[in-house]
Amino acid sequence: MNLPKTILITIPILFSGLILMGQADYMQQWPQFRGPFASGIIENVDLPERWNINTGENILWETDIPGLGHSCPVVWDDKLFVTTAISGSGNDSLKVGLYGDIDEVGDRSVHEFWLYCIDKYSGEVLWKRLAHQGVPRTERHTKASHANPTPATNGKYVVAFFGSEGLYCYDFAGNLLWKKDFGTMNAGPYSDPDVEWGFASSPILHEGRVVVQCDFLGDGFIASLDVETGKEIWRTPRDEISTWSSPNFYNKGGLRQVVVNGWNQIGAYDFDTGKQLWSLGAGGDAPTPTPVFAHDLIYIHGSHGRWSPIFAIRPEARGDITLDKDSTSNEFIVWSIKRGAAYMPTNLVYGDYLYNLRMNGNLSCFEARTGELIYKEQIPDAMGITASGVASGGKLYYSLEQGDVLVVKAGPDFKLISRNSLEDLLMATPAISEDMIFFRTQNSLIAVAESRHRAAR
């Protein structure tokens, strides 16, 4: 596919049913990994079911992003942000698919760590900033990048996290306001401490505070920082193995807690003080998915090792809520399953149902309030799935590593609506804004929108 660096397929869009404004409602923004409160959902938009990257059908624009990164796009109003790491050796190799190797890439060259700000309507790069330059302090796995964490924004600030290479805060004009060095954080397997896989937990930004979850082979912690100054407000140690999951903020009914995944330390922390509120053991031993909220419940899942559970937890939980050996529920855990949860993708809870897509293409649908299994279907020719699903308008969007995007009907009956190839590797979760969905492939950022919505701005 021979495409110029930035393709403007058509002039930008006016979207029916939405009023563009300087500070739109938070629930219509995509401010962090998986959008508002990591839900993966935006409604009141009209996304396409089909597109074609070769003919340009429903392709708004495509912009090359140099280097390698699995960070997802975040969007606030008309600005989109994404990070990347550029290797001095030019080694942007990825080994995708289903395999169990623990290999590192072995690239010890100087890297550049960048934050890009892009116009979401045109794909034009508005500005880019070099956050850091140097030899990465840790290696990356053959399936990972050195820009795994997704940025976070609140419409005024944007924070970019590169793990051992630091946390950086910019304003919307691209001015660096502060940076924070947490030292070397080797997020590798607990079973082999000499192996380095790379950091992946994304920051979140709420009520003027940046929260980071730093679980690695060392003195791991969770911390809250003032977004204007970078000053640390609290830091709480975590007795945990390496994790690659991101925290999430639950704020309802006076309960303000930061909820985290883990192996021994699944749990929540008081948003204001950092005090641990509850904890839960017996998770998967390579925690990657992010906690999500719906139906006044907290949903957490993990995989790998002895257990691959899904938990539905009451947010009022306190203390150690770990289940008895033979139990699937207790005072605070409404329902759970012990095996079958997804390893990499975060589950979708959309409407009445929880959708659990495993890396091998096995899609399970559960009744979200009770855990009743509704269906189990196999996605054909799925050769590895890392990205998490997103949803809108009664449709689920799932990205396969080989470059295909599946559009699946939401609800109790499985129906595959379409399968659309983007002709490039797909590792990052897409973003939704207005009537557009944005895909970050290995080499590009691609905006997809219905042709019928296009008109002069």
Structural write-up:
- This protein is mostly beta strands and 457 residues long.
- It has a single domain (6-453), classed as YVTN repeat-like/Quinoprotein amine dehydrogenase (Methylamine Dehydrogenase, Chain H, 7 Propeller).
- The chain is 0% helix and 38% strand.
- The chain has no helices and 34 strands.
- The chain has strands at residues 6-8, 59-64, 74-76, 79-87, 111-119, 125-134, 152-153, 157-161, 167-171, 176-180, 204-206, 209-214, 221-226, 232-237, 248-252, 255-260, 266-270, 276-280, 292-294, 297-301, 310-313, 319-320, 333-337, 348-350, 353-357, 362-367, 373-378, 390-392, 395-399, 404-409, 416-421, 431-433, 436-440, 444-449.
- The strands form eight sheets. Strands 1-2-34-33-32 form a five-stranded antiparallel sheet, with no helix packed on it.
- Strand 33 and strand 34 (444-449) form a beta hairpin.
- It is globular and about 55 Å long.
- The chain starts with 5 loop residues before the first strand and ends in an 8-residue tail after the last strand.
- The model is unreliable at 1-24 (pLDDT under 50).
